[in-house]
Amino acid sequence: MSFFISPAYAEAGAPAGMDPGMFNLIFLVGFGLIFYFFMWRPQAKRQKEHKNLIGGLAKGDEVITAGGIIGKVARLTDDYVVLEVSEGTELKFQKVHIAAELPKGTIKSI
Predict the structure, then answer these.
(1) What tens digit of pLDDT does each residue of 52-98 get?
(2) What is the DSSP secondary-structure string of 61-108?
(3) How far apart are CA 23 and CA 41, in angstroms?
(4) How confident is the model at residue 4 (pLDDT cuts 50, 70, 90)?
(5) First to last CA, the chain
(6) Domain 58-110 bears CATH identifier 2.30.30.30
(7) Residue 72 and residue 65: Cα distance in Å, rounded?
């Protein structure tokens, strides 16, 4: 029966491709670069900007908290800030919850 099946002979070897270990290394380095540029670097930049914002707070600055409360800085301590949200109403917040500083006159224009 084997006389009906013709034997297959390989003519030449396949051209040498990239080493699988080298491919894995390039893939890993590429993944690391993507992780750095799309995740770690922007987050570090935001943290640095927020740290500068917190360090630059002064009495009389108008700020907005992470919860959306707008107020004027009345007093500052090391970890806390007291915001005057209306005439005679003051609220105490941790400094890390200050989200942004607003331009002067924002509260009056609202």
Answers:
(1) 999 999 999 999 999 999 999 999 999 999 999 999 999 999 999 99
(2) -EEEETTS-EEEEEEE-SSEEEEEEETTEEEEEEGGGEEEEEPTTHHH
(3) 26
(4) confident
(5) 95
(6) yes
(7) 11
Kindly report the number of other CB atoms within 10 A of residue 70's CB atom: 15
- For residue 38, give the H/E element and its range: none
Dihedral sign for Cα 34, 39, 40, 44, please.
Answer: positive
> In this structure, how many other beta carbons lie within 10 angstroms of the beta carbon of residue 98?
21
Which sequence spans correspond to the domains of the chain? 18-55, 58-110
Residue of 67, 68, 73, 39 whose CA lies nearest to 53:
73
- Partnered with residue 93 across adjacent β-strands are 81
pTM of this prediction exceeds 0.90: no
Dihedral pair phi/psi, residue 104, rounded to 5°: -60, 135
Question: Among residues 69, 98, 67, 56, which one has the least CA distance to residue 81?
Answer: 98
